Sequence to fold (213 residues):
Amino acid sequence: MNHTINELKIEASALCLIDHQPWVAFPINSIAPEALTNNVLALAKSAKALGVPTILTTINGKGGPLKDPLFAGLRDIVPDVEPIDRTNTNAWSDPHFVAAVERTGRKKLVMAGLWTEVCLAQTAISAMKAGYEVYFVADASGGLSPEAQQRACERMIQRGAVPMTWFSVMAEWCPDNSAPEYQGLYPITLQHGGGVQWGVEYIMANLPVQGPR
Fold:
């Protein structure tokens, strides 16, 4: 793939999904639960399909009543990734999280998390202070209110983070719809993309077939 133009490159990116847990999502009021879950799973699947390393975190996730504290379906996408559990709202304060980021060797961190105004904002700002570029996925994150979501996004933007959506991340990772990698994204877009699927169906119908779809 040719990534000479787009800023967000597969080979330079790592995905950090922070605290996507049902009990954390329960009080979210900035996005509908169904939309939040859809967008998180779509983002994780896109990273998996394109070989972008994923880091998962939980907060107070161990020893709780739930056998699996993550969103339903998330662990199935990256079954070999063990969530990093912690008690501090700032994931960057946990040396295990920082070490996991460093092991990827990537400097562009695509981040989404709950809550936007707390764990995501704190972690994103700390990562930028440490020299990383942060692209936060607003529609795969959620705040306690629309106001909280907006102010958190503004705060991160003011500090240098780049706002994205899950679909814009996927499209920037793989901008060439004739590339073989794009066919791996086709079912993700059909399942999670809403109205976008009509355009994707048209594109795929007019591309040379490169194996089963």
Residues 21 and 152 are 19 Å apart (CA to CA). The mean pLDDT is 88. The chain has two domains: 10-173, 176-213.
